[in-house]
Amino acid sequence: MFRPKLPTMPQPTGQVTPPAVVIEPTTITPGTPAPPSAPVIPASAVPSRPTVQLTPGTALALVGGGTAVVLVVGAVLVSMLLAVAVTAASVAVCAVVLRSLLAPNAKRR
Q1: Mean pLDDT to the nearest integer, 24-51
Q2: 9 vs 80: which has the higher pLDDT
Q3: Dihedral of CA 77/81/87/91: which sign?
Q4: Which listed site, 20, 47, 76, 77, has its alpha carbon 20 to 30 Å from 37?
Q5: How far is it, in rounded angstroms, from Cα 106 to Cα 100?
Q6: What is the average pLDDT value for the chain, to the nearest integer?
Q7: Reduced to 3 states, what is the DSSP secondary structure of residue 96?
Q8: 3-state DSSP: the chain helix, strand, coil percent, rounded to 5?
């Protein structure tokens, strides 16, 4: 049940040979005219990126979204810190209780 199942490699059924590659010579004819190229448009005529306009509504939405992210991340971090503090306090209480339970037995001997 706990042993991994390893796949078995199938045995080849016959002789495997790579396919034959036939190389045929080709002729190159020099002086073939190239097709005419398209006219080149200067880069300054075409805008590379659209312009982003920041309106008061979008600025308020960005500020609100950023504030929400900061509050959520802060709440998560504070809750993690609180969980660590509660765990440390409970471990300390358990240590004190165990020490008080084991201390009288050591004095009786």
Answers
A1: 69
A2: 80
A3: positive
A4: 47
A5: 11
A6: 81
A7: helix
A8: 50, 0, 50
- Backbone φ, ψ for residue 85 (5° rounding): -65, -40
Which residue in the block uniquely carries the two structure tokens 């004819």?
Answer: 29
Which tens digit of pLDDT belongs to each residue from 58-98?
999 999 999 999 999 999 999 999 999 999 999 999 999 99
Three-state secondary structure call for residue 58: helix
In percent, the amount of the chain with pLDDT more than 70 equals 72
Q: Give the CA distances from residue 7 to residues 1, 4, 10, 12, 87, in Å, rounded to whole numbers and listed in that order.
A: 16, 10, 9, 15, 47
φ, ψ for residue 59 (rounded to 5)? -65, -40
pLDDT in tens, 29-39: 777 666 667 66
Q: How far is CA 17 from CA 9, 10, 12, 13, 65, in A?
A: 19, 17, 12, 12, 65
Residue 67, Cβ density class (10 Å: 0-12 exposed, 13-18 middle, ≥19 buried): exposed
Q: First CA to last CA across the chain, in angstroms?
A: 51
